Amino acid sequence: MELRLIADRIENYLFQQLNQCGLMFRLFSRVKTMSSLSHKMQMKGEFYKSGKLLIQDVIGLRIVVYFQDDVDVLAFYYSLGEVIRTSIDELDSSTFRPQRLNLTCNLPFEFVEDFRKALPEEFAPYIDNTFEIQIRTIFSEGWHEVEHDLRYKCKEDWVDCESYSRVLNGIIATLETTEWTMKSLFDQMARSNLQNRNYRAMLRNKMHIRIQGDDFSPRIKDFLYQHPEVAENILKTDRFVIILTLLNHKKRVELTYDNLVFLINRIEMNNSELMALESDEIRVILNDFFNRKFSVISKLCYIWP
């Protein structure tokens, strides 16, 4: 099996996993070329030959999400799985630079044999059975692409241009502020929607994920209008926990407005009247999940501050 095919299969697996929790994202994959591997060995060959570390990013995937809090969710989720190394830059208040978040993961066992066979013979002894996941926001992704091609790859162009380099770094600080402002905007809209009793918009802006359908069913809409305290509790729920729950569930939950309310109720409220409105199908799915008492991720969800 070619390395490109292995990368495609991993990408498809990650896509299905991310798609089931409704995140707004883009997913890309790449395989290092022979020239790229040759360049890497020329630059760090003695280091790899020493055995201190092997090349771990022959296959790389990049998850680009639309909100900064989604980076936090995915970093936490993947850190509980097959991640063997996490590289994250520590930021300080006086330095303008992007935050790098790279996860090194073990290849699924079923791919290892084909992966080893597909590696270039001269480089194979210096390559580990791993792949890399990079997680970035969509704003930082654009900045990284520009910076990588127009500064990192041509550092000689930036000699004696410290002021311009600082301005370029300052742009990422502006983009980070924009990301924070965008999230804050939707949080404020959700609170305003609650006050206006527009519960559909409240849930959409609270969760900022892709939700199927146009509205609640009439019975759920009536219930929320009759129980405004339940709608208020929905707004107070921890989005982090909801997304992790959706990621961890092996059975796909159709992300309708009704089903999201049922899931939130099971996790945070346990309102018996609302639970009685569950369809037979969603009740079976939720019972199956919550009766496991619980997987590692579920346990951590419930103790997450």
Write the layout of secondary structure elements.
Layout: H1 3-19, E1 25-31, H2 34-49, E2 59-65, H3 68-79, E3 83-88, E4 101-106, H4 109-118, E5 130-137, H5 138-150, H6 162-195, H7 199-207, H8 218-226, H9 228-236, H10 239-248, H11 257-269, H12 272-275, H13 280-290, H14 296-303
Parallel strand pairs: 2-5
Antiparallel strand pairs: 1-2, 3-4, 4-5
Helix pairs in contact: 3-10, 5-6, 6-7, 10-14
Describe, in plain words, how this protein is organized in 3D.
- Helix 10 (239-248) packs antiparallel against helix 14.
- The chain has 2 domains: 3-175, 2-Layer Sandwich (Beta Polymerase, domain 2), CATH 3.30.460; 196-303, no CATH class.
- Helices cover 57% and strands 11% of the residues.
- It is of the alpha+beta class and 305 residues long.
Which key terms come to mind for this protein?
alpha+beta; 305 residues; five-stranded mixed beta sheet
What's the short story on this structure?
With 305 residues, the protein is an alpha+beta fold. It folds into two domains: 3-175, Beta Polymerase, domain 2 (2-Layer Sandwich); 196-303, no CATH class. 57% of the residues lie in helices and 11% in strands.
Number of domains: 2
Determine the CATH topology of the largest domain: Beta Polymerase, domain 2
How would you state the average pLDDT, rounded? Answer: 86
User: In the CATH classification, which architecture of the largest domain applies?
Assistant: 2-Layer Sandwich
Shape: flat
User: Which CATH class of the largest domain applies here?
Assistant: Alpha Beta
Radius of gyration: 23 Å
Helix content: 55-70%
| Count of strand segments | 5
Q: Strand sequence of the main sheet, in spatial order?
A: 1-2-5-4-3
Uncertain ranges: 293-305
**Number of helical segments with 4 or more residues:** 14
Main structural class = alpha+beta
Task: Give a short account of the largest sheet.
Answer: 5 strands, mixed
* Helix/strand order, N-terminal first: HEHEHEEHEHHHHHHHHHH
State which percent range the strand residues make up.
Answer: 5-15%
Straight-line distance between termini: 44 Å
